[in-house]
Amino acid sequence: xxxxxxxxxxxxxxxxxxxxxxxxLSPGDPSFMQAIKAAYEKNLITPVLVGKxxxxxxxxxxxxxxxxxxxxxxxxxxxxxxxxxxELLSTGEVDAISKGQMSTNFxxxxxxxxxxxxxxxxxxxxTSFWEISPLEDFVILTDPGVNIWPDRDxxxxxxxxxxxxxxLFGHDDPRIMLLSARREISRELPSHTDADYLKKVLAxxxxxCPVGSGNFKDLFEAEPDRRPNILLMPHLVTGNSVVKxxxxxxxxxxxxxxxxxxxVLIPARADSATHLLNEITLAVTVAxxxxxxxxxxxx
Amino acid sequence: MKTFAEILEQAPACRVLIAPxxxxxxxxxxxxxxxxxxxxxxxxxxxxxxQEGSGEQAVKDACSAVKNGQADMLMQGDIPLERFYALLxxxxxxxxxxxxxxxxxxxxxxxxxxxxxxxxxxxxxxxEKITFVNKMIELAxxxxxxxxxxxxLSAIETVNPAxxxxxxxxxxxxxxxxxxxxALVEGPLDIDALAKQEAAxxxxxxxxxxxxxxxxxxxxxETAHALSQAFTFIGRYPTAGILLGTHKPVIIHPGxxxxxxxAVEVAIHALQGGAGIG
Lengths: 299, 278
Hints:
Number of strands of chain A: 11
Largest sheet of chain A: 11 strands, mixed
Oligomer: heterodimer
Number of helices of chain A: 10
Order of helices and strands of chain A: HEHEHEHEHEEHEHEHEHEEH
Distance between the termini of chain B: 19 Å
Number of helices of chain B: 10
Low-confidence stretches of chain B: none
Shape of chain A: globular
Shape of chain B: elongated
Order of helices and strands of chain B: HEHEHEHEEHEHEHHEHEEH
Structural class of chain B: alpha/beta
Radius of gyration of chain B: 19 Å
Radius of gyration of chain A: 19 Å
Helix content of chain A: 40-55%
Strand content of chain A: 15-25%
């Protein structure tokens, strides 16, 4: 599998391999619909719109976007809309789904329920593709969105998901750093002490990779070939605060939930149309690579 | 004050006591660095000397010297920080709830801002956070910020009992509304609502704090420490660090604070006039 090293390379592949079928769950905002329109015009996606008929048509008309040729599934309430999205993804009728204007919880619930129906035991987590401008390579950051206070076994599962996700971009050399506030006067935080446990369990399960704790200073001071490419967050509040630093700094963020059926996008409410388009672009590359035979790792 | 340069310009000269002197620590920290700091402070008109003696006894003697007015402030010398900090506790230099503020020069917004607590407490509760807010207000006042805007960070902008920092932030915000702080405290705010007024409005937060914060109160050490490092290493903001909640001014050297702005740290304490901040 070709190795992708940057957001630019991910975007280029999406443009070359698209379109994919993307179900949008409750499109109800002009800025959001603008991103859908842009993605369609770039031939990245074939939209499937799921939500309130009047709302999606009104919003599309507002931005002069003709949606008459797209499949439209009319449902009124958020949970049935999210459930429909999970069904479309799990049956392969679409390649990816994206949350529109609804609470993230509905989408999480729908995906988890569908996984349980299929007998899948794994948890869900957000894995974010993160590119920091002074560094040459991207990192995978997890979990900024689902697991509030992961224990060490949950961190093992998060690490495995991140390793597989990294593999999807052609990288088979994971180097895991547990982001930790370990410091001179407090050296035993779980974010540090969990590292040895993760290293052992991952090794026992056949994942042989460097695992340690560290901080952003360590990340920046590491030699490029030893620099961590997976950042495991200590808990959700840290993850959520760190992952969205693009609002303050020169960082590129593309978040996704990987399921055994394909990617789920959960854009933040404050994300701009440009950011939404970027996330859709990532989802196209991920969905295409996923279909090319890499899906077994996510089952 | 909007820049580190302004802090340096406005601060009076002061007497700094460094303990212990270079060469005291058998593990050997970078002594040439301490010499550089000393020379820089001298060049700026300060009185700087090393405490006589060596090791932990030198720190104890220096604590006494600062307490009885023989020096204006104490600076960590050639000793590991964990030992130095323990000695500060033993010698009664620390108040009950100290905290550490990272100070940044924001060249985009053309202002200074603080993040706390970025070093001392692992998982502070509401009681500690109230103390931190008051200490941040005092530091902000020294920097010329009247009624500072303090953003209380969490993962979301609504209260969720599963995330205690959201509830603590809401309490602090309500206390501010009721006039319990000489500051405008707003929270909970997630990082996007904190960063941008527009993002906050999208989330139904109508407040002058988003986008114009003077200070950020972190939810816990993992987040505040990471955020501080992100501003330094990713955002490349000029950074200094201030220990708050001491009976006498003390300057420490945590590894995550770059060392090039030690003169700024000294100057801030000098502006306070020899008393500990907070």
